[in-house]
Amino acid sequence: MRGFGAGFALLCAGCSGWQSAIDPAGPESRNLQHLLWLFFGVSAAVWVLVMLVLAVALMRRAAPSTAPLRPGSRGERGSAIAVSAAVAATAIVLVGLTVGSYRATSALGARGDEPLMVRLRGYQWWWEVTYLDPLPERVFVTANELHIPVGRAVTVDLVAADVIHSFWLPNLAGKQDLVPGRDNRISFTADRPGIYRGQCAEFCGLQHAHMSFFVIAEPPADFERWRSTQLQPAVAPMDTEQEAGQQLVTGKACAACHAVRGTGAVGTLAPDLTHVASRTYLAAGLLPMTRGSLAAWVADPQTIKPGNNMPAVPLSSDKLRSISAYLASLK
Fold first, then answer.
1. How far is CA 5 from the centre of its chain?
2. pLDDT digits (tens, 9 = 90+) for 165-202
3. Looking at the structure, do residues 124 and 184 belong to the same domain, yes or no?
4. pLDDT at 84 > cutoff 90
5. Which long-range contacts (CB under 8 A, 24 or more apart) does 11-19 make?
6. 264 is a domain residue
7. How confident is the model at residue 42 (pLDDT cuts 50, 70, 90)?
8. How far apart are CA 254 and CA 323, in angstroms?
9. Same domain (yes/no): 185, 283
10. Which site from 65, 175, 206, 242 is most exposed, i.e. has the minimal number of CB atoms within 10 Å?
């Protein structure tokens, strides 16, 4: 009995959390949850009905007879009526589920009043996040995390840079593919603060499972403070160790791929590092954001995430400490 209780508690634990389609945190995800329960309820009812009909048929099975069947007999007419009714019921169920699915998913592409506009570009295996704005000076780039204000619609333009990826954010929205050469769009609104985990849901290569992202929904005032900070250039080094790290980051191979606004690093092939230490995770959710994680990643990215496009650059321990100190200061 205790084993059953523990198993039931474990099962219930999967119904909530930061990546659960049945723990909605916005109107779009709530519509999808209603659709999920509709499909579940209808499917369960159909299964029960089929089992009942099968049981009745087995219990009422007639004894074997050698007499030939007579066309137009009452049994034959009854069977024809039953089959016709089953076909009609199937058609009605399928049409009803199709209409329900369309109504639930059509809102995912609808834009609200003055939505926050974001462009999300999928790479193997990370996400480039660009906050769009009519004023060029208010456009900035970050990676793997979306900060959004609670109660305001967010429209995300989805772009693939290499292969097909899929945006999946269970608590707030559904799924939408990112297809090279084709721009897709998804919209959603968070109605409560929280951190919600998303995931690439389309197999896209060796590190597909390590391609997550996070949505931080926060009060509008907190979001505006975060955006104001993100618009600023990188902070200046505070000590000699950080100064040495800045010189290494902006003067060696790092600057060929990464950007650090306010410095000579202007690369566009890899995540923007201007405020890298302000993020919750490193390497698209693979490591917590700490100085130790930064040092480990710089020292040997291929062991941590095999197949990624960042090469291993030989560094002495002193240089590695300087680089990690500088990167950890970029908040």
1. 32
2. 999 999 998 889 999 999 899 999 999 999 999 999 99
3. yes
4. no
5. 18/171, 18/194, 18/195, 18/196, 18/197, 19/170, 19/171, 19/196, 19/197, 19/198, 19/199
6. yes
7. confident
8. 10
9. no
10. 65
The predicted pLDDT at position 110 comes to 61
Q: For residues 246 and 242, give the distance between their C-alpha atoms in angstroms, rounded to a whole number.
A: 6
Q: Are residues 200 and 251 in the same domain?
A: no
How, if at all, do strands 212-218 and 145-149 pair? Answer: parallel
Band the pLDDT of 271: cuts 50, 70, 90: very high
Pair (120, 225) in one structural domain:
yes
Tokens of 111: 């834009």
Identify the CATH number of the domain in which residue 155 sits: 2.60.40.420
At 318 the pLDDT is: 93
Q: Both 130 and 207 in a single domain? A: yes
Give how many domains the chain has, as a whole number: 2
Q: Answer whether residue 30 is part of any domain.
A: no
- The stretch 35-61 carries a mean pLDDT of 85
State the maximum Cα–Cα separation within the chain, in Å, rounded to a whole number. Answer: 103
40-76 burial, b if ≥16 CB within 10 A, otherwise e? Answer: eeeeeeeeeeeeeeeeeeeeeeeeeeeeeeeeeeeee
- Provide the whole-model pTM: 0.80
Judgement on whether residues 194 and 141 belong to the same structural domain of the protein: yes
Rg over CA atoms, the chain: 28
Closest CA to 127 of 198, 228, 24, 50: 198
Is residue 165 assigned to a domain? yes
What distance in Å separates the CA atoms of residue 292 and residue 302, rounded to the nearest whole number? 16
Enclosing domain of residue 175: 116-231
